[in-house]
Every structure is written in C-alpha cells, then in structure tokens.
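User: Hi! I have a protein structure encoded as tokens and I'd like to know what sequence might fold into it. I'm fairly new to this, so please keep things simple.
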C-alpha cells in the first residue's frame, strides 16, 4: 500500500509540475503576443483608426437603452470590474481546462475591445493571456464609457457590417440614434452570432428576448422591447 501511495503522490507531483510549466509557457507566449501587437500599432493608433471607420458612432449619439442592453447581455459587471471579471473568467477557465479548449466565454467588454482591435479570433490560450495584458492598458487609458463606445463600434454584426452605425443603417435603415427599444435590444444581441442572426430572423428574435431577460435580471429598464413583428432584414 505504501508503494502505491508513493507512486500516486509522485504522479500527482508530476501532473502539478506539468500544469505549472504549461501555465508559465502560456503566459510567456501570451506576453510575447501582446508585445508583438503593440509593436505593430499602439493603442492610440488603433483607436484613432477605428474612429475613422465609416459609420463610427460616438456614444452620445447612441440610445441609453441600447448601451444598457449591451452591458446586460455581454458583461453585466462591466462598471464594477477593472477589465477582467474574475468570477466569469474563473468559471470559464475551469470548463476550458477540463476540455483543453476555449469553448466557454467569460470575456469582458474590455477584453472584446482588445480582441477586436489587436488580435485574431483564433481561440488560443495565448491570445487570452495577451488580451489580459492589453486590457490593463485599455482600462488605464480610457474610461468605461469610452471603452463601451469602442466595443459597439468594433463589434462585428454580420454582412460585412462592423460597428453599430453600419449595422443600424444596414439592417434597420436608419441611424442608431433612431433605434426604438425593440431595435436596441435586437442589435445588442447580434455580435454573439452575427452570421446566424443576419440570416435567421427567428434566431435573432430569440436572442432579442434573451437580451430583454438579462436586462430585467440585472436591473436595467428594457422599455417597450417586447417582440415586434419587424425583424432585422
């Protein structure tokens, strides 16, 4: 029995050592990816380039209902954390490590801005680490409303539409400032699966209902965002 216990102990130590080594390598590679991204373009340059994108819409021209809907469905603790939601990340990390994948989300709005501006959408642990470093810089340089503005203008909405300005004109036929409550909640849900929602009105409507539910759950007023006959077309 002692021999079995000793072998089990050594095996556990070996596994822990392998995990620590893997984590160290991942952090190293993630930091290198972060530095490489900044070497190509600074945060200020990336933001300036985004603001020159056709359809870029300042936050002052966006309905508060839409902004609340985005926060409710994407990152309801957005105004409380410093760019990393430890609770969401921890929950996703446990699931990801158990499957050796990145199937779970957990990304905050700031992390998504980092990804949209600097990184590919490849699901790699190194990229998630790089995002964490970039998030620190973004949160230090910009306020929460600025970061939220960057997110809604850099998110992909399907059909080659990047940003809420292009998406609102493309799907709804008018400027974001004119979105009603239903349209605000509909558009807030699009970045989750833009290509699906762009072609499947039923799926888009179901997502819109989830947005409304999340708003109610986290204390946001969804207004008159009940299902409407009009769908994004």
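Assistant: Happy to help. Inverse folding works backwards from shape to sequence: for each of the 233 positions I chose a residue that suits the local structure. Here it is:
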């Amino acid at each position: 029995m002692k021999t079995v216990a000793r072998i089990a102990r050594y095996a556990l130590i070996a596994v822990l050592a392998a995990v620590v080594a893997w984590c160290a390598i991942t952090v190293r590679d993630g930091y290198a990816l972060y530095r490489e991204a900044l070497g190509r373009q600074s945060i200020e340059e990336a933001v300036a380039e985004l603001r020159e994108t056709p359809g870029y819409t300042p936050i002052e021209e966006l309905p508060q209902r839409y902004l609340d809907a985005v926060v409710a469905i994407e990152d309801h603790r957005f105004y409380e954390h410093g760019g990393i939601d430890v609770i969401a990340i921890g929950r996703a990390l446990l699931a990801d490590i158990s499957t050796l994948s990145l199937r779970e989300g957990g990304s905050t709005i700031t992390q998504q801005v980092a990804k949209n501006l600097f990184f590919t959408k490849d699901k790699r642990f190194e990229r998630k680490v790089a995002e964490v470093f970039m998030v620190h810089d973004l949160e230090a340089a910009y306020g929460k409303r600025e970061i939220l503005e960057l997110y809604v203008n850099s998110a992909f909405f399907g059909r080659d539409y990047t940003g809420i300005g292009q998406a609102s004109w493309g799907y709804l036929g008018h400027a974001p400032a004119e979105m009603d409550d239903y349209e605000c909640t509909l558009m807030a849900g699009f970045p989750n699966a833009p290509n699906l929602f762009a072609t499947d009105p039923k799926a888009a409507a179901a997502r819109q209902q989830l947005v409304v539910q999340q708003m109610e759950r986290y204390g946001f007023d969804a207004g008159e965002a009940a299902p409407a006959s009009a769908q994004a077309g």
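A useful reference point when you look it over: Residues 228-233 have pLDDT under 50 and may be disordered. Feel free to ask if any position seems puzzling.
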